[in-house]
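To: structure desk
From: M.T.
Subject: fold request, one chain
Message: Could you run this one when you get a chance? Sequence is below, nothing fancy, just the single chain.
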Amino acid sequence: MKLVQKRSKKTGLSPGTLIHIGEQRTETVSVTLFNYAGTQCEEQVVTDVTALRLPADETVTWVNVGGVHKVDVLEAFGKCFGLHPLLLEDIANTDQRPKLDDYETYLFLVMKMLMPSQNGDIMVEQVSFVLGRNYVLSFQENGTDVFHSVRERLRGGKGRLRQHGSDYLLYALIDALVDQYFTVLEMLGERIEALQEQVIEDPRPNTLKDIHALKRQLLFVRRAVWPLREATHNLSRSDCPFFHDPIKVYVRDVYDHVVQIVDTIETLREMMSASLDIYLSSVSYRLNAVMRVLTVITTIFMPLTFIAGIYGMNFEHMPELKWPWGYPMAVGVMGLVATVMLIGFRRKKWL
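Reply: Done. Structure tokens follow.
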């Protein structure tokens, strides 16, 4: 996860110039197509993008593109579906902020997909949608199969997908991404709770590293979700003629989920800030406890060192040098002084 992608190679170029910004990839771009209406559903893998055309009948077409690193593929989609150059430029820029744009004849929506990885990290992938009258185009940065549930519903004819238009399909795709956010937040919540217990019971040097790693992950999640609240709100109030009012009810439900996710993220961020404060306080308390013990020991040994220093000067005319009980007396005095000081420290609750 990178906070800022390198965009210097676009400096000085004209608007609409297609340059891929993001992780460099060499994989082949995958293109799959679903064409459905009622009881019929056709699925195929597209090998020639230039042969795609806008659907002329009442069927709904969904084209999913896995990979945006091939500029020529994006240009082919722009020619086939009449997409604006600025829209294609936003698709190729994987550092785009989630947003909703209205191009009159179609809507353009940018979202971020979040996926937990095996090593506990969070994968962030940009997903762009183009909604037309009877088609939906989805462009995934890496082609991760996050829309598996939507595909299965189309293949099996389950739910309302086949009975509705392209606007309901867009809602289903958005809802699949938002549901994935809850999975990521559950994982982060469990890790934060375990970390808080460790901070309170046994804070270690690695604990600080874990705290900063979780704070960084929460920062990425917040960047991905926070702008989506405005985008889904605008989509639920869109005046687009092919985005119908019955579907806006479902989008408002997604908006409520996004608001709930934002609130949860802010709560987790506050918990992490509190964990950091607790860690610093615990470390400071342990350091103070150690320093207090060392100070008490030093204070006790100061008069003992003074007595030992006096009897270590070896002057000739010291009366205790030839006294048989001189050494036991000196040791006894030193022990008595140490005992009196310990009793005094305990009464003052310094120990």
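Reply (cont.): The chain is about 50% helix and 15% strand. Let me know if you need anything else for the meeting.
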